[in-house]
Amino acid sequence: MDLLKKCALSFHVLLEYEYHFVIGRKGKLREFRLGFDMADFHHLAGLHKLKDIAQIQQGMRERIFEKILSGNISMDLIEKSSYYSQMSGRILPLAGLEQFLDDNQMIFRYNERVHKFSMIKADYLLEGKANINPSYLFLGARNHDEKEQMCRTFFRIEDKDYTEGQPKYTLLKKEKIHLPTGKILVQFDKLSNKEVKKQDIGQKQFNTI
Fold first, then answer.
1. Half-sphere exposure of 175 toward its Cβ, with a 13 Å CA cutoff?
2. Interacting residues of 188 by C-beta distance below 8 A, sequence separation 6+
3. 3-state secondary structure the chain
């Protein structure tokens, strides 16, 4: 299967889900939800960097996402871009975004002023693996509401350590909510003194809200 379409199909699955995080540091708790929208895929895949491909730069991002799903926009097209090397590191991890989020337990509060070499704007930084690729996922507020986060940037870890100088938080609880049914999969729960392991409860076993 075309890799770009594979990434889009994987992201399409996440549109039915929302993650709820409870984190803590120095006795203070924070919580936020992570949701998904079709338009989010554009920036996550690095498509905004392909300035010389009109089909990707023009039109609504939701429509571009749908064209990728239908196969009308593919890897063959984006690889022709002179800017492809600037976004190629985002494609391989993106197909494993759901796995990254299901497994992730490394969360940092992100302060962009620490890394003046970067233009990334984010509230949180998650570190983990996606398709065996060590990766960073940056989260930012949706509609200026820090309790409602969205995926901003996702790429393989290479030479820069974005966690340096960033305060690390302890993951206390993580839930994966299936929005159409309102069912919850508890993926991690330190608040009730236990960690729920996926291999013990199974991917399809949920607790009802």
1. 16
2. 105, 171, 173, 174, 195, 196
3. CCHHHHHHHHHHHHCCEEEEEEEEECCEEEEEEECCCCCHHHHHCCHHHCCCCHHHHCCCHHHHHHHHHHCCCCHHHHCCCCCHHHCHHHHHHHCCHHHHHHHCCEEEECCHHHCCCCCCCCCEEEEEEECCEEEEEEEEEECCEEEEEEEEEEEECCCCCCCCCCCEEEEEEEEEEECCCCEEEEEEECCCCCCCCHHHHCCCCCEEC
Stretch 57-75: mean pLDDT: 93
Tokens describing residue 152 = 């901003």
Report in angstroms the alpha-carbon separations of 1 from 4, 6, 75, 106, 155: 9, 7, 10, 31, 21
Supply the pTM of this predicted model.
0.87
As given in the structure block, the two tokens for residue 153 are 């940037």
* CA–CA separation, 74 and 31 (whole Å): 37
The answer on pLDDT for 207 being more than 60 is: no
Convert the pLDDT of each residue in 182-196 to its tens digit: 999 999 999 886 554
